[in-house]
Amino acid sequence: MLSDKDRAYARAKGKAIINRHAHEMLHDRVGAAEPKNDGKQTPWRGHPVFTAQHATATCCRGCIEKWHHIPQGRALTEEETNRLADLVMAWIERDLIHHPVR
Ligand SMILES: [Zn+2]
Questions:
Q1: Distance from Cα 23 to the centre of ligand 1, integer Å
Q2: Can you tell me the distance from the alpha carbon of 73 to that of 66, in angstroms, rounded to the nearest whole number?
Q3: Angle 4-13/78-98 helices, nearest 10 degrees?
Q4: Interhelix angle for 78-98 vs 61-68, to 10°?
Q5: Which of 13, 14, 37, 74 is deepest in the core (most CB within 10 A)?
């Protein structure tokens, strides 16, 4: 679940910008063949994409291998990054829909 702060942030930025962040963050944190601090590189809070990464098992290469069947030890392809970003975005959108602005 997103925090109220994350929801407000996501709504203020809009889908296109959060989607860009999702691509950038996945590319930078889990995209390399051997990501830095793999397993601990994704904070639990501070950006809606971080929270969504833990919820969708796109937080580290171990989770990505286990849940999305993408092997460790090689860089993610652009197509794989896009696919994982789509999962992150779908999760964020679902959270926003379930927590409408009152
Ligand atoms: Zn993980």
A1: 17
A2: 13
A3: 120
A4: 90
A5: 13
- CA-to-CA dists, residue 72 to 12, 24, 32, angstroms: 35, 19, 10
Residues spanned by the domain of 12? 4-98
User: pLDDT, tens digit, for every residue of 13-45?
Assistant: 999 999 999 999 999 999 999 999 999 999 999
Total tally of structural domains belonging to the chain: 1
Ligand 1 center from residue 96 Cα (angstroms):
23
Q: Are 5 and 90 in contact (CB under 8 A)?
A: no
Q: Measured in angstroms, how far is the CA atom of residue 84 from the centroid of ligand 1?
A: 13
CA of 85 to the centre of ligand 1 (A): 15
Structure confidence by residue, pLDDT tens digits, 54-63: 999 999 999 9
